[in-house]
Amino acid sequence: MTIHLDHTIVPSHHAVASARQLAELLGVPWSETGVGPFAPVFINDGLTLDFIQTDEDFPVYHFCFRVEQAQFYAILARMRAAGVAFRSTVRGPEDGQINTDYGGNMVYWNVPDGHQWEMLTVSYAHQPSP
What are the C-alpha distances in Å from 4 to residues 1, 52, 65, 110, 127? Predict the structure, then answer.
């Protein structure tokens, strides 16, 4: 059997609002109530991000979404319409630019809750051999 990541838990100080915002930006479904205490965002048929409400401090997690070119621009348009600041480098300034260093498009943003979100069209983790 192939191994697939089914879900992961995303700690949040505003779980419902954070789940809603991410789902709206990505254009995917979500629910205020899931199994147990979660506000799930249904990324695709096989992956759910379960936002959980907490008052505790938590580390910043990094999540990267690989999307098709048309999806990239649709999501970017929703980000701009929502006033979500983004950047072209992982830790750089919010420059509103698109990174094209790896043969595709890539941006980063840090809302909701400070987590680091990345969207790209070409995976730099699986680059072809030279």
Answer: 9, 22, 15, 26, 21
